[in-house]
Amino acid sequence: MIEAILGDLETSRSQIEGKFSRAGTILESAVSLISQQLEYLQQLSGLLDGQAVGEATRELTVAAGELRSLPTMLRERGQELRDLECRSVGLLSDIEDMRSLLRYLLVFALNLKITAADDQQDAQLVHAFSQEMRTRIEVGVTELDDIDMRLNELLDQVRAALKLESDLAEDVHAMVPAVPNRLADDATAIRAHQKQISDMTGQASALAQNIQLKVVDALSSLQIGDISRQRIEHIQNGLNLLTRAEAGLAENGLSEDARERFAKFVCRLLATQLADTADGFERDSRGMLANMSGMAADAQSLLRLQQTQGSSVSHNNLRSLERSVGDAEILVTDMEQAVATANDVRSATALTVDELLRRIDAIKGVREDVQFMALNTTVSCSRMGDAGKPLQVIAIELRLYAKKLGSIADVTLAALRSLGEDVANLNSDRSQTSSKSRLESAAARLRDAADLAESGLATVVRHGTDVVDSLSQAESELNFDAEFGNVLSTSATSLHALAGEGDIEVADILGPLQDIFDAIAATYTMARERDIHAQCLPNAATVARAA
Predict the structure, then answer these.
(1) What whole-number distance in Å separates Cα of residue 419 and Cα of residue 370?
(2) Concatenated DSSP letters for 242-309?
(3) What DSSP designation does 427 have?
(4) Among residues 245, 287, 423, 474, which one has the fewest Cβ atoms lying within 10 Å of its Cβ?
(5) How far apart are CA 444 and CA 441, in angstroms?
(6) Residue 289's closest CA among 20, 3, 66?
(7) Distance between CA atoms of 317 and 428, rounded to whole angstroms?
(8) Confidence band of 518 (pLDDT split at 50, 70, 90)
(9) What stretch of H or E contains 364?
(10) Non-local CB neighbours of 211 within 8 Å, separated by 6+ positions
(11) What is the dihedral sign for C-alpha 265, 266, 267, 272?
(12) How far lies 434's CA from each of 52, 85, 431, 437, 466, in Å?
């Protein structure tokens, strides 16, 4: 019977030792995994710095606002270009009027020469005047031709810019405000998603820390395995001592009845120790398993929390943002081209105005020369008497048309100066040139932040799975009922059966009992064992009753 009990106890001791050792290794690994999990969560929290995402979102919001203002900007710039076109056309009309006047002047100069040919006396002088006048007028014609060419070049630039503005206006009408609104919405969605993940990291960190504390407590509670193993060893040692003591008492001639009472008393001690061991083990292991079960449940909750965030619509948000940024960049690229063209027109207009002002001054110089020469011709004709009267009429006409030329030149000069002042006061559109880079930079930062968040989440979820697996394995490892159930309680019942019921007379065996009790007590390592041992010692009442 004792041999069978020893065998059962050895099986229990071996299983407890093996299971608790493996469970301890698993839980130590779990502590390490959870520490890594907390570290990854902290890193993820750092990656989700709201400042970077917030700045990128604000930049996209600014870009969206700029895109919404495109219709107004286009109307203002279109009006500016149309005004420039209208004024250029007006200037061309003035140039054509001056050209017509110069043609008349050429005709009058020729008539002057022809008329003067009838009077040989002064023909040489009038011929020289006429030739000089034609030379000056031809210089004016050349100047007007150059002015006309420059104005037409400018007008072509203006009309090309207006065509570009018209095409852009069609795109803007089709895409604004839908594109900027969607761009702002997508940026907000990305920011909201980052905020959700950031909130999750805070919740997950708190939950992981709670799990870590529970695992550490579980590691501490594993000492019940070591306590139970030691107590089983002590009971095994007591049974072995009993077997040897019985043999020695038989050799010393102790009666069978005395040896039987001796064995019962010792078995009662060992049974009490084993029953207390079984009760403590069952109680503590049940609490430990409940704690383990709670840890596994917490780890599952942590994993579900991380997986929920990991399977969110972040990629959809990113794809939508990419489309919105792409559409916005189309508008911005076209806008930048229109801005560059409008700025080129402004620059060309400024240069053209400066050049034309000089050329108009030259035209005014032609007018002054013609008037001066016509006046000289009039004076010369007056000395010719009746023969000079026809020449005098022509000279007067020359002076009148030269005066008209001067008037038109003054009007043109004033128009050019006004145009020059207006162009100088215009602000070039330079702000739009940064919109594309702002869009690309902001979208890239949001994309990088989202990628980092997804990568960090994947790492966190992967290690979260390892934590769940580790804790589930530890829980399974410590599921004692499945393998040896109530072996300790059964062995304690068997020992109680050997001890029997009722009082045991020990007066005649106090010496051997004292020896074996002292030998058993020498193996104790726990106060609980010594307390139970003291309760089982033969007391004075037992000794008196036995006497």
Answers:
(1) 29
(2) HHHHHHHHHHTT--HHHHHHHHHHHHHHHHHHHHHHHHHHHHHHHHHHHHHHHHHHHHHHHHHHHHHH
(3) P
(4) 287
(5) 5
(6) 20
(7) 36
(8) very high
(9) helix 314-382
(10) 34, 295, 298, 299, 302, 467, 471
(11) positive
(12) 19, 29, 6, 5, 48
CA distances from 506 to 261, 264, 503, 515 (A): 7, 10, 9, 13
Buried b (16+ CB within 10 A) or exposed e, 468-498: bebbbbbbebbebeeebeebbbbbbebbbeb
All residues at 6 or more sequence positions from 176 whose CB lies less than 8 Å from its CB, including other chains:
67, 68, 70, 71, 331
Q: How many CB atoms lie within 10 A of CB 51?
A: 7
Distance CA 62, CA 54 (A): 12
- 202-225 tens-digit pLDDT: 777 787 888 788 888 878 878 888
- By the 8 A CB rule, do 31 and 219 touch? yes
H-run or E-run covering 156: helix 120-175
Which amino acid does the sequence have at 536? C
Answer whether 197's CB lies under 8 Å from 492's CB: no
pLDDT: which is higher, 37 or 427: 37
Q: Which helix (H) or strand (E) holds 197?
A: helix 178-221
Query: Residues 232-282: pLDDT tens digits?
Result: 999 999 999 999 998 898 888 889 999 999 999 999 999 999 999 888 888
Cα→Cα distances 269→241, 242, 280, 403, 494, Å: 13, 11, 17, 144, 13
Nearest to 212 by CA among 331, 359, 37: 37
How far, in Å, CA of 92 to CA of 86, rounded?
A: 10
303 vs 463: CA distance, rounded Å: 9
| Burial class of residue 123 (count of CB atoms within 10 Å of its CB; 0-12, 13-18, 19+) | middle
pTM over 0.70: no
Q: Which pair of tokens denotes residue 277?
A: 């061991």
DSSP code, position 509: G
Name 380's Cβ contacts closer than 8 Å, sequence gap at least 6. Answer: 122, 125, 126, 129, 388, 391
Query: Residues 524, 533: contact at Cβ < 8 Å?
Result: yes
Q: For 38-181, where are the E strands, in sequence order?
A: none
Peptide bond into 538 cis (omega under 30): no
Render 44-79 in DSSP notation, one character per residue.
HHHHT-HHHHHHHHHHHHHHHHHHHTHHHHHHHHHH
Domain ranges of the chain: 2-48+190-315+454-546, 61-186+317-447
Task: Spell 153-169 as b/e; 16+ CB within 10 A means b.
Answer: ebbebbeebbebbeebb
CB-facing half-sphere around the CA of 83: CA atoms within 13 A: 14
Phi-psi group of 261: left, alpha or beta (phi > 0 → left; psi -120 to 50 → alpha; rest → beta): alpha
Question: Quick check: helix, strand or coil at residue 283?
Answer: helix
Measure the CA–CA gap between 450 and 471, rounded to whole angstroms: 31
In the chain, % helix, strand, coil (3-state, to 5) comes to 90, 0, 10
